[in-house]
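Question: does this match?
>
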Amino acid sequence: MRKLLLFGLLLALTEPLLVAQKAESAGTTGASNPGSQNSGSAPSIAVNGPVVADYGKNPSGGDSAEQRIAREVRHELLMLPYYSLFDNLGYTVQDRTVTLTGTLISAHTITRSEAENVVKRIEGVDKVVNDIKILPPSPMDDRLREQVFDTLVRTGGLSKYFWEAAPSIHIIVENGRVTLDGYVMNEGDKNLAGIAANGVPGAFQVTNNLKVAKS
């Protein structure tokens, strides 16, 4: 777990800039979720996938207060101690209620309550629903996380996505099943990452949820 702790400590010290800066300045980490809105209420601001620096700074949907809350939630989640590329947090904001989602590895269990506490302190937040899941401890999954990480870093030009303290590729492993989440610069890098992860021994299934950053 040496690499995992190193990334966590780096994230605790700084909010980095990522390759995700190529995103549209008015874009969101995920699309608005109009289907969840009540009649007459503002649409929720949904963030799907990992909380990645410089995505979702100017979310669309919702009123100005909800947009401010969404930006501050994103910032606070990025600054959580030990939040790493092996974790995956997301959130939605609607009617001043923030719903936290995603997964954390068992070593970062305390981060679940910390996430809720920092979001509760944001001005204008009335309620926090904590739906963050803690992945079960598994030495096999721990080894697989590091193997996938090592493989991606050594594959083609993918190492650039791990240069910053908050990598734009997140590696989620549960029961031998690997999910790649986050952002890359182009479709070629997305496909390359998926092929590389599929070649790691012990990976029973690989789901490639990487998104291509808009230029």
Remarks:
- The chain has two domains: 2-134, 139-212.
- The domain at 139-212 is CATH 3.30.1340.30 (Histidine-containing Protein; Chain: A;).
